[in-house]
Structures
1.
Amino acid sequence: MTNEPDITKFKLMPIDKQINWIVQNYLQDLYWTIRPIVKTHENTNDVLQNVLIKVYQYLPKFRYDSKLYSWLYRIAVNESLNFIKKTAKMKAMDTNEMLMQSLQSDIYYEGDKILMQLEEIILSLPPKQQEVFRLKYFNEMTYEEMSELLGTSIGALKTSYHIAVKKIKEKLQHY
Amino acid sequence: MKTKHHIEDQFKKLKPSYKVPDGYFDNFKPAKAKPANIIRLKMDKRLWIVAASFLILVSIGYKIMHWQEKEQHILKIEQFQTNTNTQSLFDDLTDDEIIEYLTEENLSEQTLDY
């Protein structure tokens, strides 16, 4: 997982420099947090920009009670979820249906048929299991890192991941 | 029928094929660099405050107007009831009945200004 800044020095930086520091150090992590949720590159870019606007707006009020990356991660996840809800509503479509359609039309996606099926199955999982699965499988995080990031016990995370994998395997068998 | 091991092997290979345009991360410019976005956010916030204040004022004004109207209406009803009570009481009576009523109630014509 990413390194945290020296908070004492970071707090003293002007906002523009703080944002630059975040972009230099966390851009890819934020991108790969958003991309598996919103699926397409174009949407990821839009959400990423929204996240940075939010960070610009709220960073001066951030109390550093939690780690900076945990705070950024929550903003990225919330912005992504809001984005897909809003887009689905605008297109008068079901969220999962809209995401699968976007993925199929994304020129920056090269998944084959079976990968598409996996995406569809992941979308059918409950949100918490989706999140744990994404972090473990796509972002290759350890349970310790996930526990720190989500504030959930390692045992609970292992259980969620185990159930998610079991469900995915079962569903893949029927495809 | 696929075997359990076959599915597990296949599953391990199912890494997503998300691609990113060349140089995307190197050339990324955050939206915060555009002051228009921040101004827009601040403006949005201000507009919401103005709109909310306006709505609160309109609702208070409406409540006051409504309360005044209600008060006037109650007064009118009271006046109307007072008038109609006296009038209806005597309108339907003959002169003899009026005198009888006044006697029973121990009232004089002057008391009622009749």
2.
Amino acid sequence: MGEFLNIFIKSAFIENMVLAYFLGMCSFLAVSKTLSTATGLGLAVIFVLGITMPINWVINELVLIPAELEFLRFILFIAVIASTVQLVEMLVEKFSPGLYAALGIFLPLITVNCAILGGSLFMVSREYNLTESIAFGLGGGFGWFLAIIALAAIRERIRYSNVPPAMRGLGMAFLITGLMGIAFLSLTGIDPAVFAGWSETVAE
Amino acid sequence: MAESTEIRTGVVAEPKKPESEKEPIFGKKEKILITDPLLDNNPITIQVLGVCSALAVTSLVYPSLVMAVAVVFVTAFSSLFTSLMRNIIPKPVRLIVQLVIIATLVTLVNEALKVLAFPVYKQLSVYIGLIITNCIVMGRLEAFAMANKPWRSFLDGVGNGLGYGLILVAVGVVRELFGKGSLFAGSPIAMNIIGPSNDTTQYWINTAADSGVGTWFGWYANNNLMVLPAAAMFVIAVFIWIQRSYNTKLVDAS
């Protein structure tokens, strides 16, 4: 349990997908104009990331590595992600048509959200086990959710400020994200496990 | 107004022409497909597509250049193949078909880089794989290649890849020059531009106190902020600022 929480907290705050690795920027910048759509997209990302990560782990460990087919990794991972997103799209359309209309093109674009595929690729390169990859998926998604909500809230406020015309909208979004990224840098190197006494040694 | 929305979305409807009329292979319309995405409809600063990799790989010029070439290759050929198959792809599964095309091309690039330039491959790590999810590729397939003929789609792919590469290399130049004082580090044409020379490295502008220009440039120090990924955000924001100041049509109304 300690290990699970450790990776969850680490991937949500210390190694935040958006603010530390800058993954999933396209939809992060484009859908963060209002808080409500940002919340919907954030929840969808948590869901997709949480589901695809363990599936991709199973495919990678039980199919690709024993059969020595690692070069097929990209194609299989993206196929899993695309079908999961299609599933989410159908569910959202059925249960929440308002959210479906609000998300528009960005729901299918979760497929090409770098955070999802990037998460799976990081999982492979960091050699996580199944529990760890579930924690990484949920934590990474939660971190992405928090970041997009924060940016959307700031952008809603900044509409009342006197920004130079050429910087309105996109320009300010880039600047704010950069500043948030620098703020999150101060968290690097913290090991939650050591703080909470789950582990005695400092992990690298 | 209609013209400006056309520029924004980049969707250009295919003109209906009688079959007999001959189309030039590289006419005015084809030229626009290449030049438009370079500035007025740039994938990064206007369409906001493909930002992720722009931030992660641009701390040095050489990896950004390699990345740009890889992306041009993938956008151009995925547009070509998608456009060739556009009439036989069933609508509901088109995303998956497109992704398989892109993933195949990216796998090719990945394997080729592993053989040809292993150090850069190591440096780019997961970001080569992430070309698959680079929104430009998918965005152009959806917006253009699914509705246009192969040759035009190919050119559109090349143009958008180049527009992306242009920003990537520009950000790379700013970040490497001010962050490390060098250009093209790691490549055969590595250049050391500014910094204090010592026995192992010679800089063009020597800022060491005992040199000629050192008395004038002795205060100069590398800006470590530029090495951080966040700096790419600021550099792109400045590019957007400059571009939108010149072209006020692009200013965000909301």
